[in-house]
Specification:
- The chain has about 170 residues and is of the alpha+beta class.
- The protein has one domain.
- Helices cover about 25% and strands about 35% of the residues.
- β1 and β2 form a beta hairpin.
- The model has no long low-confidence stretch (mean pLDDT about 85).
Length: about 170
């Protein structure tokens, strides 16, 4: 069987099994404004995320991904450190000082969508900026950029003037 596919000018025939369902990759320039919005925000002291390829995925293909944007604001800096001992306590979806959005799901998989009911918190624009960056990081569209700059199995922490990368043991 001959296909319309060619490699180095030679026609390719046979059954082609496409491996990854990754999205088309976007350049760093499209991610930069979303980063800058959080860096420029005087209330956000630091933010970060975890990125890694799982070691085991219940038999499914293990693919690189980004997990959970977190943020520390001036409100958490002024609070007892033990209260927010983990980045999981500062997840931007249900954040103690950024707020949260309530909502519900409509539809069936794979077309199921989250319908936003309302925002609860002090600054909806700030919350939305965090959500935009979180969505971009977890979309898969910047995986190549993130892998190239920070590597695999990494915990990234972004501060006003620096970015720190630590090994992330995700087992």
């Amino acid at each position: 069987m001959t296909t319309d596919t060619n490699f180095l000018g030679m026609p390719v025939s046979g059954d082609i099994t496409h491996g990854s369902t990754r999205r088309e990759q976007k350049p760093l320039e499209e991610l930069a404004p979303l980063f800058q919005a959080l860096i420029d925000d005087p209330t956000i002291v630091e933010f970060g995320w975890r990125q890694y390829t799982p070691y085991f995925n219940d038999g499914d293909t293990c693919e690189f991904g980004v997990n959970g944007l977190w943020a520390r604001t001036t409100a958490e800096v002024d609070t007892d450190e033990e209260e927010f001992s983990s980045m999981y306590d500062l997840d931007v979806d249900y954040h103690p000082s950024l707020g949260k959005v309530s909502g519900h799901y409509e539809g069936e998989w794979p077309d199921r969508k989250f319908v936003r009911d309302g925002y609860e918190g002090p600054d909806e624009d700030r919350y939305n900026r965090c959500q935009e960056l979180d969505g971009a990081l977890q979309s898969g569209a910047f995986d190549n950029v993130l892998l190239d700059h920070f590597g695999d199995h990494a915990l990234i922490t972004v501060r006003k003037g620096s970015i720190e990368v630590e090994f992330h043991d995700h087992d």
